[in-house]
């Protein structure tokens, strides 16, 4: 397991002690894959094929909820949407 600190919100001091967030290996692999650029969900599933689709989806949701990554929904003129993910502020902070 890996641990990362979750910071208080900007401008507000954290009222409670900061608890470390535990990341499993799938979380770390997702963050490393998103480190360089924004990636579509399909490419994340293809790249991390050693994990089940359900496990990747659950980890993406959890990482988004904890502000490690953010979802970007792209709309194209033909009516299709593409869902991509990129690092959010805690994900960028994870890499220093």
Structure characterization notes:
The structure is a single chain. With about 100 residues, the protein is of the alpha+beta class. Helix content is about 40%, strand content about 25%. The strands form two sheets. Strands 3-5-4 form a three-stranded antiparallel beta sheet. A two-stranded antiparallel sheet has the order 1-2. The longest helix is centred in the middle third of the chain and has 13 residues, at about 55-65. The mean pLDDT is about 85.
Keywords:
single chain; 96 residues; alpha+beta; three-stranded antiparallel β-sheet; two-stranded antiparallel sheet
Give the biggest beta sheet.
3 strands, antiparallel
Category by helix and strand content:
alpha+beta
Percentage of β-strand residues:
25-35%
What distance lies between the first and last C-alpha atoms, to the nearest angstrom?
A: 18 Å
Number of strands: 5
What string gives the helices and strands in order?
EEHEHHEEH
By DSSP (H or I, 4+ residues per run), the number of helices equals: 4
> pLDDT average, as an integer?
86
> Major sheet: order of its strands?
3-5-4
Regarding quaternary structure, what we see is single chain
Q: Can you tell me the overall shape?
A: globular
Task: Give a brief rundown of this model.
By secondary structure, this protein is an alpha+beta fold. The protein is 38% helix and 25% strand.
Structural topology:
Elements (H helix, E strand, L loop, with lengths): L1 E4 L14 E4 L1 H10 L4 E2 H7 L5 H13 L3 E7 L5 E7 L1 H6 L2
């Amino acid at each position: 397991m890996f641990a990362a600190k979750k910071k208080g919100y900007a401008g507000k001091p954290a009222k409670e002690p900061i608890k470390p967030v535990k990341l499993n290996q799938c979380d770390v692999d997702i963050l490393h894959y998103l480190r360089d650029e924004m990636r579509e969900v399909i490419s994340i599933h293809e790249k991390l094929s050693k994990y089940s689709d359900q496990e990747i989806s659950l980890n993406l949701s959890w990482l988004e909820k904890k502000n490690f990554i953010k979802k970007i929904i792209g709309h194209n003129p033909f009516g299709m949407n593409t869902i991509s993910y990129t690092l959010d502020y805690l994900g960028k902070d994870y890499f220093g």
